[in-house]
Amino acid sequence: MPQTEIPRVAMYLQDAHPIRDGMEYARYAEERGFEAVWQAESRLVRDAIVPMAAFAAVTERIKVGSGVINNWTRNIGLLAATFLTLDDLAPDRIICGIGAWWDPLARNVGIDRRKPLLAMRETVEVMRRLLALENVTFHGEFHHVDGIELDVVHGRREPRHVPIMIGATGDKMMEMTGEIADGAVLNYCVPPEYNDKAMELLDVGARRVGRTVYDLDRPQLIVCSVHEDRDEAIRGAKMLLTQYLAQQPHIAKASGVTQDIVDKIQSILGWPATKEQIKQAMVYVPDDLVLRITATGTPTEVIAKVQEYVKRGATCPILYPLGDVKLMIDTFATQ
User: Fold this and answer.
1) Which of 55, 100, 123, 310 has the highest local Cβ count within 10 Å?
2) Percent of the chain, pLDDT > 90?
């Protein structure tokens, strides 16, 4: 197995495996020196909180993050209480990754994502104050609370150290993340050079409050399709990218994919997409695109690609395994 020179590494799980398999992968990643396991919450597939609790319950050291929940669908009091509860289960191991969600999904479930910057700013402020066990009164445009605080009956009556990391995509959200968050969860399905602008924007925001981009943690989601057979690795990555490019237009835009490719894929895929539709549409995803915006190939190739993201600002790659999960963990193991 090739040796990696990436000191911090994490794993990303979404919905491709039974939760109990995910629990086993979390245990194995902890054994092999991974820093964190992050659970997705994107389409209407799998809630992040239940798997996070499951991963936390069967591990001892590895951190557990939401990658990412949205700031629209959970009441702010419940949101803070949820992360207090997770911190009770795994003290000082929980990370709150939160994002502004995306259309058309949000719109299709009745959410009007107006003023996303203000909504996120209010969420982070109130959430942070509640987790500090303050008594909070706040009247904003999106959150209204009167004299509330987290009621700790059993557990530690002390401020909780839950880092709040924003999964930012747009320029203004990225800039604000540098100002108000503990860090940014950088996008996946983007080329390494995407990070150059992200670093600049984060730094602009950070300097507003007397710090720099290097004071922020910058974990980054990276699709990782590793296989001894390079062609098989590419095929696995194409299946994922086909679905993302059709259903998450903000990801397609950030990755630099041309609109004609997106249109062709969207003309074939339904909602939710079937495996047959994905196979039919994936022919429109070129190999060079796969290799540009993911870490795909043999173990040596994927390590080299992930190192490119680190060199351009990612502090901790969050690897989304396609195919053999344990092979990916072994490829990037630090112990």
Assistant:
1) 55
2) 79
Two structure tokens written together for 178: 């540098």
Least confident of 141-145, 165-169, 274-278: 274-278
330 to 32, 252, 334: CA distances (angstroms) = 7, 30, 9
Backbone angles phi, psi at 318, to 5 degrees: -105, 100
Distance separating alpha carbons of residues 71 and 79, to the nearest angstrom:
9
pLDDT digits (tens, 9 = 90+) for 295-306: 999 999 999 999
Domains of the chain (ranges, CATH numbers) = 10-224+301-332 (3.20.20.30), 229-297 (no CATH)
The rounded distance, in Å, linking the Cα atoms of 188 and 295 is 10
Q: Long-range pairs for 41-45 at CB < 8 Å and ≥24 separation? A: 41/66, 41/67, 41/68, 41/69, 41/70, 42/14, 42/248, 43/15, 43/105, 43/247, 43/272, 44/105, 44/109, 45/14, 45/15
**Other residues' Cβ atoms within 10 Å of the Cβ of residue 320:** 25
